[in-house]
Write a structure and sequence with these properties.
single chain, 329 residues, alpha/beta, eight-stranded mixed β-sheet, four-stranded antiparallel β-sheet, 10 helices, 30% helix, globular, binds iron/sulfur cluster
Length: 329
């Protein structure tokens, strides 16, 4: 299977203000390692999930992929070419192919524009040669596709006239209208009522099935991950700690952090999972360690060897983990 996106050893450190009264820190620059050597492969036409707690670096990675911010080092390869180096027309071409759906459907739509004009905006930027009739047809078609029917009525509404779920459908339609190859969906249902989350997830999932769009789905929630994902990468404190097919990772989680995330899944727990594999971790000290395994302070199994840094390694077909517990598998 072809990979449409490759994230290669991406690092991004943000400077932290130091306390001027702390003499031990005087003159030193401190950094938060938002991304600390992240590598990922995303297969074309599939739904790849990135799961982790807030602050783990997920949104920073999404912003780097879309070139909203630059990495300190590492590369993003999209369809075989390095987009971290692109500027001008080449960067514009990439942006036509990669779109984002944001978490907050209330702030992501311009309140003074009608739905029709909100969806027309990206066409005006990327398909300047389209006639008025072609634009209208495209807009009404994508509104139908996200189930905003009758589309002619929804096209005339303003965002304040829509529910949260309807707004998120408009945001999806706006991404779809320029026919991207990749959509990054950053927690698109977390601000919606539970009752309408499944409908939005269903629409996003159908994009990969019907239109063969690759979806990179970012979430903190394993239940959503299992519903929507084909592949999963688990991120902790700026590193990928486990990755593979969703069935393998969630039925046989190998990293203690993934096992702890499963403990946070509300009842009923997933079937086909060995209950011994679900653990409860120490939450009182969530600070990642500077050296060695960054999960050391929270891990119930930490050992001396964990003061070295574990590498993400293949443990079975399509299942990788970064943990010394599995060195002998
Ligand atoms: Fe725990 Fe060690 Fe594995 Fe890190 S490498 S998750 S500290 S057992």
């Amino acid at each position: 299977m072809k990979n449409i996106l490759e994230v290669q050893d991406v690092k991004k450190y943000f400077p932290i203000k130091t306390n001027i009264f702390s003499f031990s820190n005087f003159g030193k620059k401190n950094y938060k390692k938002a991304l600390d050597g992240v590598s990922l492969l995303i297969a074309e036409g599939r739904v790849s999930v990135l799961v982790g707690e807030s602050g783990s670096g997920k949104t920073t990675l999404a912003r780097i992929i879309l070139r909203a911010i630059d990495p300190d080092s590492g590369s993003i390869i999209f369809n075989g070419s390095n987009i971290t180096k692109k500027t001008g027309r080449e960067l514009r071409d990439f942006r036509k192919q990669a779109q984002m759906i944001h978490q907050d459907p209330y702030s992501s739509l311009n309140p003074i524009m009608k739905v029709f004009d909100i969806i027309k905006e990206p066409i005006d930027i990327f398909y300047k040669n389209y006639s008025k009739e072609e634009r209208t047809e495209k807009i009404l078609t994508v509104l139908e596709e996200v189930n905003l029917k009758p589309s002619t009525e929804f096209a005339e509404k303003y965002p304040h006239m829509l529910s949260g779920g309807e707004r998120q459908r408009v945001a999806i339609a706006r991404s779809l209208v320029i026919e991207p190859k990749l959509i990054i969906a950053d927690e698109p249902v977390s601000m919606l009522d539970v009752s309408i989350r499944a409908q939005i997830l269903q629409i996003v999932k159908q994009l990969s099935v019907n239109r063969k769009i690759t979806i990179f789905y970012i979430t903190h929630d394993l239940t959503t991950s299992r519903y929507i994902g084909d592949e999963i990468s688990v991120m902790y404190a700026g590193k990928i700690v486990e990755s593979g097919s969703i069935d393998k990772v969630l039925s046989n989680p190998l990293h203690p952090y993934t096992q702890a995330l499963l403990d946070a899944v509300s009842e009923p727990k997933f079937e086909n999972i060995d209950k011994e594999k679900i653990i409860r971790i120490k939450n009182f000290d969530s600070v990642a360690t500077e050296r060695g395994c960054n999960f050391f302070n929270r891990c119930p199994y930490s050992m001396d060897i964990c003061k070295k840094e574990p590498k993400l390694e293949r443990k079975e077909q399509n299942h990788n983990v970064s943990c010394f517990l599995h060195d002998t598998i």
